[in-house]
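Here is an idea for our session: we take a single protein and study its fold together. Once you have written the record down, we can walk along the chain together.
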Amino acid sequence: MRNAHTLFVWNGNFAPGGVAKEEWTMTLRGTPVEPVTSLQGMADIAAAGWQAWRDHLAPHLASTSNLLKCTVASVTALGLWEKDATGQFKKGEKILTKDGTNASTQFHPLQTALACTLHTVRAGATGRGRFFFPLVAETLANDGGLTPARHIEIATSVASFVQALNAIPNFGVVEVFSSKGVSTRVDSISVGRIPDTLRTRRRSLVETREVRPIP
């Protein structure tokens, strides 16, 4: 069981040639400063979350990596989206396509991403979290990782992104939530140089499959 909290969800796709080939999702959580009761308040938070993405992460992504929607919801301790008195989910959405603004035409395989680890003062695995975002449109170094200069730049941008979320009124701060219900403030982030593979995106790929029987 987690503490009641605010959930951010960013949804987008990867659309080379203007045709969507893959969908991606990114989530972060935080404990609000005070309960946000209005749907408009949630919408305002979502808009600020969309703005943070646009300002800090989009510049590193290819123009074929599109952010389509930012949703923010109020989640109960049972992990369910909270509803208001009229039965509507307490959520807000910012729906507005924002392409990455990196002009590079470098194409990496689908399902590749960069992983950001969220660190807290809490020791062990319960004190760390992680989120994934689309792999940047860059030619990789000879060892298969980001170039050192780009690595530093992206880590700085991710830290600025988290700081921008922390500055949103009523959102509180980005936190890591353990399975035991303990929430701990994120006090640093780290981004690796080597691209990761996000297998959970497999079901979101647009493709045809060749099937052969095995007698």
